[in-house]
Design brief:
It is a single chain. The protein has three helices and no strands. By secondary structure, it is mainly α. The protein is 85% helix and 0% strand. It is rod-shaped, with a radius of gyration of 23 Å. The protein has one domain.
Length: 110
Amino acid sequence: MTEEKTKISAIAMNEAQLLLAEKRTALAILRTGIALLALPMSITSFLIAFSKHYDVFSVLHFLIPLSLLNLTLGGFGIYLIYTSVKRMHNYDRLIHKIKIEHSVIGQFID
């Protein structure tokens, strides 16, 4: 009986480790999404700071594609942030479920 309980605890610990690794991956995706969201804001602030050195209408053929690229990067950043936060909540729910089902390893997981 104790050998079977040990196997179940080992399996539950492996499941928890897998979920924590997946959560770390989601955090890395969140970090990437934040960076992608910050990049268009820094480009736009740079262009605004130097806007007195050029005429907007004479460089409009550069600003329109750049604006579209900024919108695309911002949208992709928002998408990455949203999906990673959604995944992290799901992983937290599954880890909590493991903690409740297996009280032996629940004391090791915060």
